[in-house]
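Holo model, LGRKZMXR. Inputs:
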Amino acid sequence: MSPPQSFEEDLAFSKTLHNHESEHGGLLAKITSKDKEAFENVVNNYMKYWVDKDPMTESEETKEARRSNYTNMTNAYYNIATDFYEYGWGESFHFCRFYPGENFYQAIARHEHYLAVQLNIKSGMKVLDVGCGVGGPAREICQFSGAHITGINNNDYQISRAIRSAARIGLENKTNFIKGNFMEMPFEDNSFDAVYAIEATCHAPKLEGVYGEVFRVLKPGGTFAFYEWCVTDKYDPNDPEHRRIIRGVEYADGIPELFKTSVALQSLKNVGFEVVSAEDMALNDDTIPWYYPLEGDIRKAQCLWDYFSVFRMTHFGKFCTRALVGGLEKVGIAPAGSFQTQIVLETAGDCLVEGGKLGIFTPMYLMVGRKPQN
Ligand SMILES: CC(C)=CCC[C@@H](C)[C@H]1CC[C@H]2C3=C(CC[C@]12C)[C@@]1(C)CC[C@H](O)C[C@@H]1CC3
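Output:
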């Protein structure tokens, strides 16, 4: 089975791979209902972009392959990672700041509300969510503000899950989820009152490409607010340890290339936005760091339910997931590549924590830009 080439092929492939009719249950139910050949194929498809193991000596050709095939690569990544993300993190695929006394899901929702406040979203507004995942933030921001939210995403499986979850809570008329490439959005110029993106635009090979599209579809005077994944000024590309960590983040999170905060900010200006504010939210000296759940530091859990979430990232929790997923794969119930997916995601967790601790990476560089009136 060769990788899909068009939207129609993408959808057909996604329906075969994920069996859209039976998207219920937990991680084990979901992975055991995949089409085995299609899953193995998509894992191999993703891995082929990362054949050169050493980032210091990686060929320009391999890097270029990731940049020019970013839609295929990102789609493959989310085809394999989505079920694991939901199992380990819930339906809002992003990080957040944590306050003592506040549980994990409250903190995640607050991070979304904070963005909505930056945009001054009001009931009746038409708002775009760029790279909406399975629609967790869109549902939350819709309920928080009363605005109509359109989510755009290139992954059919995530779109189908977003549509289903919105309908389940009666938001089908206040939300819609559209399949599309954020570098060529299927919307008219000047269509939205406000646009936000949460840890999604880092999948673009060139930030100006996606920011430029946001600029085009935003109404004059409208605001774009977003959390960007970036390397910070502390990152030294000539330091092999820094390179290993950042390359690990790119590889295990489906990102062609991470850019510096200064590059992201300049890209926002280059496409025509007036910068309202730019701040690395990870630099607030929080007593509980943004990466704490990935550290498996169970002592920082804030309520009983948090213990369950964080448990999955402890050494023992990871061992259990690996044993279950690997065991099911060995006996032929889960598709080949399931175990490898868990290992890739563990690498993601480890490298994000290392990058966060060294301060060379941030998942929450918050930029707010305004499209000029004229
Ligand atoms: C990839 C981008 C741009 C954003 C996603 C951010 C986070 C939601 C993910 C980054 C690393 C992910 C991991 C998991 C869940 C989602 C993330 C935190 C797991 C906890 C899922 C369950 C696995 O067993 C371990 C994963 C570690 C990494």
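Residues 12-90+287-356 form one domain. Residues 84-85, 87-89, 93-94, 199, 202, 229, 253-254, 312-313, 321, 342, 345-346, 348-349, 352 surround LGRKZMXR (CB under 6 Å).
Archived with the compound record.
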